[in-house]
Amino acid sequence: MTAAVAIALAVNGEALSPLAGPGETLLDILRSRAELTGSKRGCNTGVCGACTVLVDGKAARSCLMLAADCAGREIVTIEGLDGDPHAALLREEMAGAGAVQCGYCTPGMIVALTDLFRGSAEPPDAGAVRHWLGGNICRCTGYVSIVEAAVKAGRRAVGSEPGMAGR
């Protein structure tokens, strides 16, 4: 039997050294040790996207990543995006469009879309948003309002929405 080992990682800008047992995932560490519960445990198989976090700046399913494999990595959860302008625009537009119903999938979607926005010089169109959210399941909304909100937030992020830049 393998004993738990301390792993050093940065979560939302803070250095952490939690003990990680064999088979423990990054999601386990985030929710139980770091007490960051914004990343949800949905399917635990990487299908639903509710556990999406940024790992070294890229969207990843935290339920699929062994905690021990995250040593030395920079992890950002939905809680760590509080000051991020892309995430703020997404939250505002999603709330305004009624794109949030039960809210369970919303943190994972905002994290995934923040990754999309950070990597785009142009605002994403509806097709790009749908493609990017291919790994995020929403059982309540039907995605229409989510996609519309993301497209609008993307336009605002690059200032191409008439009268919206800087709002």
List keywords for this structure.
single chain, alpha+beta, Ubiquitin-like (UB roll), DNA polymerase, domain 1, five-stranded mixed beta sheet, two-stranded antiparallel ribbon, disordered C terminus
* Count of distinct strands: 7
Low-pLDDT stretches = 162-167
- Reading off the top of the CATH hierarchy, the class of the largest domain is best stated as Alpha Beta
Write out the CATH superfamily name of the largest domain: Beta-grasp domain
Strand order of the largest sheet: 3-2-7-5-6
- Give me the CATH architecture of the largest domain, please: Roll
Q: Give me the Rg, rounded.
A: 16 Å
Could you say which overall geometry the principal axes of the C-alpha atoms support? elongated
Give a quick account of the main beta sheet: strands, pairing sense, barrel closure: 5 strands, mixed
Mean pLDDT: 91
CATH topology of the largest domain: Ubiquitin-like (UB roll)
Measured as a percent range, the helix fraction is 25-40%
Class inferred from helices and paired strands: alpha+beta
Short description:
The chain is of the alpha+beta class. Helices cover 32% and strands 13% of the residues. The chain folds into 2 domains: 5-80, Roll (Ubiquitin-like (UB roll)), CATH 3.10.20; 83-157, DNA polymerase, domain 1.
